[in-house]
Amino acid sequence: MADKHNLERKQLFEILEHIYNEVYVLDRHMTIIYVNPACYRNYGLTPSEMIGKNHNSFTGNVWFPSIIPHVYAAKQRM
């Protein structure tokens, strides 16, 4: 069973790495913990330039306006 889950994780990672749309994941402190390569195409920033930084550090110059704080506060889709 563990091997099956590892395979599924690897497949999911491969999908995320090659999907056309950008995907980025924030933790509960709004720190970016994952960014796929599509973010480079959209923002000119590599994953290593984004991962570990707070989402708010990109608000105003990359993401404007940002809806993320509203989604976190309401805990629902907008």
Description:
This protein has 78 residues and is mainly alpha-helical. The chain is built from four helices and two strands; from the N terminus they run αββααα. The protein has a two-stranded antiparallel ribbon. The longest helix is centred in the N-terminal third of the chain and has 17 residues, at 2-18. The relative contact order is 0.12. The mean pLDDT is 83.
How is the topology of this model organized?
Layout: H1 2-18, E1 24-26, E2 32-35, H2 38-43, H3 47-50, H4 68-74
Antiparallel strand pairs: 1-2
**Ends apart, CA distance between termini:** 37 Å
> Based on CA inertia axes, which overall geometry fits?
globular
Main sheet: strands, sense, barrel: 2 strands, antiparallel
Low-confidence stretches: none
By helix and strand content, what is the structural category? mainly alpha
Can you describe this structure in just a few lines?
The chain has 78 residues and is mainly alpha-helical. The protein is built from four helices and two strands; from the N terminus they run αββααα.
